[in-house]
Every structure is written in structure tokens, then in C-alpha cells.
Design brief:
heterodimer, A: 179 residues, alpha/beta, Rossmann fold, five-stranded parallel β-sheet, three-stranded antiparallel β-sheet, 4 helices, 8 strands, B: 312 residues, 2 domains, globular
Chain lengths: 179, 312
């Protein structure tokens, strides 16, 4: 397996700053908005954005949640892979909120489809947007596109994108892995 | 990714410690699910489950059915009293007829010990034992231990006493297996006639003095006296049993510390425990019932993920 560095820590930081900026542009004081990271990997991104929004824009009351989509996935019992659940933590009301769903890599769009169904179990948000760090173009199985995006990547099918976070993987970096 | 080591839940005896932890971790997530405004997930929407109850049950049956519906499974119910079993059909025939209707999973309660194990040798569907005679009741033990873990954070090293009719109790046997696998210290307490011989071989201690047992433990699991399984009298009178083994508030007040009270239900109020104990702040009886749904969802989810229908 070979790997190629796609984005360095510095480049990731610039992108995060821009995404935070775009969120503030649309959601202003976030009074009626919330960030929800898709478990497990989207939660790191949601937390990073929260820190920037808190530090640079003083949005310390911003609501951030974690959503696990395991029980809503469409590939349950369809492969050898066991699907183990992660924690869900949404301790605010979703009804009538503007929710920004957050995930690190957008590929087939199936996780986002599951997340949309999962989110409905908590109520009826007035609007749902999608923020992703990496958009793998031309690989979608469903008509799903991000509203906010970090970087578009063209990757062929046996390649995959690995997002590393300092708090979990020891460094901030994004790699293109060749299987 | 972790998975269960078994494809049927026939008893706690057959599970590994890792299995127990996986079930508890999965149940944590389902407990969160059943506290949402919409308590249903679509995971098992292409699974059909038959609930076969050859023996009466209220709580277990409702709990299983609710868990199945919250997982979006299709459910069919069967009770022996209103079926062809009374016309002389054998167990294997009954179940095979039901499986011919394309059922993926069977939840079975049966008065004969080992009925689940026997059935697993004859059918291909996944089987969950919902109580087989005086043998095992694995999901009850899982929810009991899960409730202890929820209250204390860990089961390892905890002191638990199981009080009452140990002889006729499948709950006691499954609880002993589960607690010992997780490193708890277990005593059983009851009249000599209701403690099975050689129970020490399971790694538990026997204590006949109720006050001493309660003073030792942190958690007391109270069992019902199972009159329906008794062919003859095991103690002189209910009144004498209550005097020696009934737990009441006055007795608990004499202890040096408060202890947690559990009961698998149904409670005979005034026999094994009085109402003021069952309804006290130290009782987690209703938490056990709530956790039962989450535990059963976890067990069925984990077993269903081993039924592969879409292999390429």
C-alpha cells in the first residue's frame, strides 16, 4: 500500500478557517443553528470547527452534537464487515433548527443518506446542510452534494482518502492511499 | 470490527467475556435510541422473528416484542395454549412449520430445560432462549448485569447476593454465569431446601443467614418463590419463609450501608420483598425493565448481523 500526502497540517488549517468563515456568513450568530458530526470521523471535524468558531467569532454557546448512523446504514448484513455502533450525543432539540451535518470524506453519499434518516428520529429540522472536508467527485451513488466543501479530489476506485487528526492519529494530514 | 462468538443465544454459559462486553456496549447505543422522540431504527427491516412462548410470560414477551418492533423487524407471535401443540405436535414440527413461512430468528420460552439447545441441532434459524425451564434465562441475566454496570460503572469485584428460590430459578443460574465471567463475587442465600447441591462448584458461596448476606453485599437480587415448579413443599409455610427470607425496610435499616435492590419480576409483594423496599430509592427494578428492551435490541442486532442473506 502506498500513500501520497494530499493536504498538510497548514493547508488543512487554512481550509478549516475558510469553512468556519463560510458557516458564520450563512448562520450569523448560530442562534437557531447546530453542528452535528457524523460518527466516528466527522465528530473530530465538527469539534475543530467549533473551536475556531468559539475562539475567533466568540460563538461559545454554539450547539455541537455527534450522530451515529450504524443502525440506519443500508449495508447491514450485506458484507463480511460487522457494523459496530458508536456513541450518539445530541443534547439539544433538533426540531426547527438549521442543522449542519459534518463528515470528513464524501464518497458514495450513502452515509449521508443514512444520517438524514437518523436525524429525522430526533425531530424535524427546518433545514439540513452538508459540510465535508474532502469531496471525492465522480463517485456518488446518490444525488447528494455538499453545501460547504474543503477540497475536491479525483480518486480512482481502489484508492481511498485517509483523514488524520492530531487528537486521534497524532498528526493533522490527509493522505491518498493506494490499495 | 467485533462480533459475537455464537450465532444463537442459548445460555450465558456459551458466551465469552468479550461477548458480554460487546452486548453491553451495543446496548448503550440502543438505550440512547429508545430515549429519542422516534424510537425506531430500520436495521432489521428485512428480518422476520417468531416469538414462540410455550410457557406463560408477560414482561419478557412484551420486552422482546417491543425490541423487535423498535428494530423494524416483522414479528409473529405464538403461544402454546392456543396452538396445535395441544393437539400433539412435536416441538421440531411446530418450529419447522413456522420456519417454512420464512422466519429468520426464533425467540423461544419453553418449560423444558435444554429445549433451545435441542432445537438448535434441528433448525438453521438463529435461536434466542427466553427461558428454558429451570435452566437459563440469558437475556434476563444480561439486563441484570447491565443494570449493575450502569449504576456502578463496573461489575468486577462487586458483591452480589441472590436471595430466594435458587433451585427453581433460571434467572439465578444465568446471573451466576454472567457475574462470575465478569469477576463479581456472588453469594446465594435461601433455605437449605431451595439451594441446589454442589452449587459451590459454580464459584459461589452459600449463606443461610439473610442478615449476614445483606450486610456482606452491595447488591441484592431478590427472586420469586416459584410455586408452579414445586412438586412438593420446600418450606413449612409462606409465613415462615417471609419471616426468615423476606426483605423489609426495618431489616435494611439495621444494615451499616444502603444496598441496591433488584428483582427480575413478577414481584410477590409482601413475600420476598415488601412494597416499601420494592418502591424505595435504592430499588432499580424499573431500570431493569427499561434496560431489558435495550439489551434485547442489542442481542438481536448482533445475532442478525451474522445472518448473511446477501452474500455475493
Amino acid at each position: 500500500m502506498s500513500q501520497k500526502l494530499l493536504l498538510s497540517a497548514k493547508e488543512i488549517n487554512i481550509i478549516l478557517q475558510r469553512l468556519a468563515c463560510q458557516l458564520v456568513e450563512n448562520h450569523k450568530d448560530f442562534k437557531n443553528s447546530a453542528l452535528i458530526g457524523i460518527q466516528p470521523r466527522g465528530s473530530f471535524l465538527a469539534q475543530r470547527l467549533y473551536h475556531i468558531l468559539d475562539k475567533d467569532y466568540g460563538l461559545n454557546t454554539l450547539k455541537v452534537g455527534k450522530l451515529d448512523i450504524t443502525f440506519y446504514r443500508d449495508d447491514f448484513r450485506r458484507g463480511d464487515k460487522m457494523l459496530n455502533a458508536n456513541e450518539t450525543e445530541i443534547d439539544f432539540i433538533v426540531e426547527n433548527k438549521n442543522v449542519v451535518l459534518i463528515d470528513d470524506v464524501l464518497f458514495t453519499g450513502r452515509s449521508i443518506r443514512s444520517a438524514l434518516t437518523a436525524l429525522q428520529s430526533f425531530g424535524r429540522p427546518s433545514k439540513i446542510e452538508l459540510l465535508t472536508l474532502i469531496d471525492r467527485r465522480f463517485s456518488r451513488h446518490l444525488p447528494i452534494q455538499p453545501d460547504y466543501n474543503g477540497r475536491k479530489v479525483d480518486a480512482i476506485n481502489d484508492e481511498h482518502v485517509k483523514v488524520c487528526w492530531k487528537e486521534n492519529d497524532g498528526e493533522d494530514a490527509i493522505y491518498l492511499m493506494n490499495n | 470490527m467485533k462480533e459475537l462468538s455464537v450465532s444463537n443465544l442459548l445460555g450465558i454459559k456459551y458466551l465469552t467475556t468479550e461477548d458480554l462486553h460487546l452486548i453491553f456496549e451495543t446496548a448503550d447505543q440502543f438505550k440512547e435510541v429508545i430515549n429519542r422522540p422516534i424510537k425506531k431504527v430500520p436495521s432489521l427491516r428485512d428480518i422476520t422473528i417468531a416469538n414462540l412462548f410455550f410457557e406463560n410470560s408477560t414482561r419478557t414477551r412484551l420486552s422482546f416484542e417491543l425490541a423487535e418492533k423498535r428494530l423494524s423487524a416483522d414479528v409473529i407471535n405464538f403461544s402454546a395454549s392456543s396452538s396445535s401443540v395441544t393437539k400433539g405436535e412435536t416441538l421440531v414440527d411446530t418450529v419447522n412449520n413456522i420456519l417454512a413461512m420464512k422466519v429468520d430468528m426464533v425467540v423461544m420460552r419453553h418449560p423444558n430445560p435444554g429445549a433451545g439447545v435441542f432445537l438448535s441441532k434441528h433448525i438453521g434459524a438463529s435461536i434466542i432462549n427466553a427461558g428454558d425451564g429451570a435452566h437459563e434465562h440469558p437475556t434476563q441475566a444480561l439486563l441484570d448485569v447491565y443494570s449493575i454496570r450502569e449504576k456502578y460503572g463496573d461489575v468486577n469485584g462487586k458483591k452480589i447476593v441472590i436471595i430466594g428460590d435458587i433451585m427453581h430459578s433460571r434467572v439465578a443460574l444465568s446471573n451466576i454465569f454472567a457475574l462470575k465471567k465478569l469477576g463479581a463475587k456472588v453469594k446465594v442465600c435461601g433455605p437449605n431446601s431451595l439451594i441446589p447441591k454442589h452449587i459451590e462448584s459454580l464459584g459461589v458461596e452459600v449463606e443461610h443467614n439473610l442478615t449476614a448476606a445483606l450486610e456482606w453485599c452491595e447488591i441484592a437480587n431478590m427472586l420469586r418463590v416459584q410455586h408452579e415448579r414445586m412438586e412438593h413443599s420446600y418450606f413449612p409455610s409462606t409465613r415462615e419463609y417471609v419471616q426468615q427470607y423476606g426483605v423489609n425496610k426495618a431489616l435494611l435499616d439495621t444494615l451499616s450501608k444502603p444496598i441496591t435492590i433488584m428483582h427480575p419480576g413478577p414481584i410477590n409483594r409482601g413475600v420476598e420483598i415488601t412494597s416499601d423496599v420494592a418502591d424505595s430509592e435504592h430499588s432499580i427494578i424499573l431500570n431493569q425493565v427499561e434496560n431489558g428492551v435495550a439489551i434485547r435490541m442489542a442481542v438481536m442486532y448482533l445475532l442478525a448481523s451474522k445472518i448473511k442473506q446477501y452474500e455475493n
